[in-house]
Design goal:
10 helices, 5-stranded antiparallel β-sheet
């Protein structure tokens, strides 16, 4: 009986092992198939995996060069008060600021999280993977069919784990093979670079070392405050001061280094420019980037400080002094690049000096892009949104909702329709954006279930052909294309393209010619009351003293020589049927004197333009 019971136990164990093997086969059959790819299929599949790796690396490169973004966040323009838009134009490529001050003076951050980058990278690969060039295998008799891709990314130390779910059916003659999942590892320093960028960003937000360097530059290269013993007024040309400051900022920011970067600490003078962080980083600024310099008090383009006589009772000393105190507001961008081996990650940062001192730091923990503003957590009102062009064709567009300065991401329309929950808000704004169309903001109140329709204007890119007095012009010109809520400036002839949609525009053209017109120095007289010298000062007696002060000469290197303004309503039919926007501007008399230069600016205000689409 004991032998029989032992035999039964052995059979039960064998049965369990067989059952487990069957279950394991069905659970892991896809991976087993992938490991046993037929030799005839293997070259095709290896080409596909190489393409998958290549497209992943392309997406990584875009993330690293655009501050962690592939799809740009909504664009926000700057203003005359704050010059920063939400993006820095670096060599023709827009990069979202991680920190900037909006045109209406609101501090904003747009720092992507690691989860944001993983999601964007997956979406990027989904859009590119079916374009892998496997055409050469079709001529060999293979038929290759792709399903719908779904990619999940994990950004880890020194690598990225790519998990692609994409059915690929490869068929030739009577042989067919199906592969569903594809897993690869791609070598990349993206995570380390992002962590380093985040460390530098956090250090700047906490210590504001860029602003502190800027204050030092200001006090070394511009008149800020002081006293000089002289009886003549002190004068400075504000434009020259600003030009000197912009060059000094560019040079000094480029000189900044980090302890982790390539530099030598052997020379003591280098230590001033060293940022105390182990991160490998470089700092870039250009005097040609958008910036803003303001100074008060000023008289037009001049900074003037008047002399003051001595105090009553001290006039016998016989000297005057000139105190000066100027207050500056400075705004400019810095591009921060962190690097590892041959890989680098970059993001821009707005530096702001207000009243000669650094801006106030952001209180508390700064906002991260994956944090949800409080108002956006209370989405409780169902709303239906339709997005179409003017011909009622559905358009897929990104939908956000702005309420009291807070923007909540809602979703994306599919076939022009999105039904989703919105936060309740009075006089909020629907913000709609889609590639190839003008962004649109529509006032919309959400208090109860409702429906909204938004019509988007298609953008058409046009080549600009500028004429002066009906002849092709290739010299320097500034062209402003102004529509409601948007201004685009074209520096001609370096830039010759503009994107337009149907609507009302004002087009302005300023044509310049090289000039050596000299505005001569001039002398003005200033008279003040000063204590009388000798015993008269004891009794508070004063006398008038007059001083001459010089206004320095200036050379006008570019003089207005033509142009004009024109209000013009652009029809979509004109945009559809044309390739070129031709602008014909009229010339102005040559500026041979200051009076003629001033006269040209008066004439300019009344000159029109001929606008023609060809």
């Amino acid at each position: 009986m004991q032998n029989k019971e032992g035999q039964v136990t052995i059979f039960v164990i064998i049965g369990i092992l067989i059952l487990g093997s069957v279950v394991a086969f069905f659970v892991y059959k896809n991976s087993l198939k992938q490991e046993q790819i037929p030799a005839s299929i293997e070259p095709i599949y290896n080409s596909f995996l190489s393409c998958l790796e290549e497209q992943t690396l392309v997406g990584v490169n875009v993330l690293e060069s655009q501050g962690g973004y592939i799809t740009m966040p909504p664009f926000e323009s700057g203003s005359s008060y704050m010059p920063f838009s939400s993006q820095l134009d670096f060599l023709g490529n827009p990069i979202p600021y991680w920190y900037y001050i909006s045109g209406n003076n609101v501090a904003k951050e747009q720092v992507p999280s690691l989860q944001d980058m993983q999601k964007e990278l997956g979406i990027f690969v989904d859009g590119k993977i079916r374009d892998c060039g496997l055409d050469k295998y079709y001529s060999q008799g293979f038929e290759i069919n792709f399903g719908v891709p779904e990619t999940k990314m994990q950004i880890k130390d020194k690598k990225i784990m790519v998990n692609l779910n994409l059915p690929i059916n490869i068929t030739r003659l009577n042989e067919s093979f199906l592969i569903n999942t594809h897993n690869i590892e791609v070598s990349s320093n993206l995570k380390k670079l992002y962590d380093s960028a985040f460390e530098i960003y956090s250090k700047e937000q906490k210590e504001m070392f860029l602003e502190n360097y800027t204050v030092d530059i200001l006090r070394n290269y511009a008149p800020v405050d002081g006293v000089e013993l002289t009886c003549s007024p002190l004068t400075w040309n504000a434009d020259e001061v600003f030009s000197t400051l912009s060059r000094a900022i560019e040079s000094n920011i480029l000189a900044l280094k980090t302890k982790g970067g390539d530099f030598s600490l052997k020379k003591p003078e280098n230590k001033y420019f060293v940022i105390n962080t182990p991160v490998n980083a470089k700092f870039i600024n250009s005097k040609n980037w958008t910036n803003s310099f303001e100074v008060n008090p000023s008289r037009g383009a001049l900074l003037i400080s008047e002399p003051i006589g001595n105090q009553q009772g001290l006039g016998m000393l016989g000297f005057c002094y000139v105190p000066y105190h100027f207050v500056y507001n400075i705004k400019y961008p810095v591009l921060i690049q962190v690097y590892e081996d041959q890989e680098f990650f970059q993001f821009p940062f707005a530096v702001v000096i207000q009243g000669n001192v650094p801006r106030k730091p952001i209180s508390g923990t700064f906002f991260e892009s994956d944090a949800i503003p409080e108002i956006c957590e209370y989405k409780n009102t169902n709303t239906l949104v339709h997005t179409t062009d003017k011909r009622a064709n559905p358009i897929d567009a990104n939908i956000s909702y702005e309420c009291s300065g807070v923007v909540c991401k809602i979703g994306k329309t599919e076939n022009g329709i999105l039904e989703s929950l919105f936060p309740q808000c009075v006089n909020g704004n629907l913000i709609v954006s889609s590639d190839g169309f003008m962004d649109k903001s529509v006032s919309y109140t959400v208090l109860e279930q409702g429906e909204a329709s938004v019509f988007l204007d298609k953008l058409y890119e046009k080549e600009i052909n500028l004429k002066l007095d009906s002849k092709d012009y290739s010299g320097q010109a500034i062209i402003n294309v102004i529509s409601e809520g948007d201004t685009r400036t074209i520096v001609y002839p370096e830039q010759k393209k503009v994107k337009l949609s149907e609507g009302q525009y004002q087009i302005q053209v300023y044509v310049y010619e090289n000039s050596s017109l000299n505005i001569p120095a001039s002398t003005q007289q200033q008279c003040i009351e000063v204590p009388k010298s000798g015993l008269g000062s004891v009794f508070g007696l004063t006398e008038q003293k007059c001083f001459d002060y010089q206004i320095p000469s200036q050379i006008v290197s570019n003089a207005l020589s033509g142009g004009g303004k024109e209000d013009y309503y652009i029809l979509e039919s004109e945009l559809e049927s044309s390739k070129t926007l031709e602008i014909n501007a009229g010339g102005l008399p040559k500026s041979t004197s200051i009076d003629q230069l001033q006269s040209n600016y008066i004439l300019f205000e009344n000159k029109g333009l001929d606008i023609l689409f060809k």
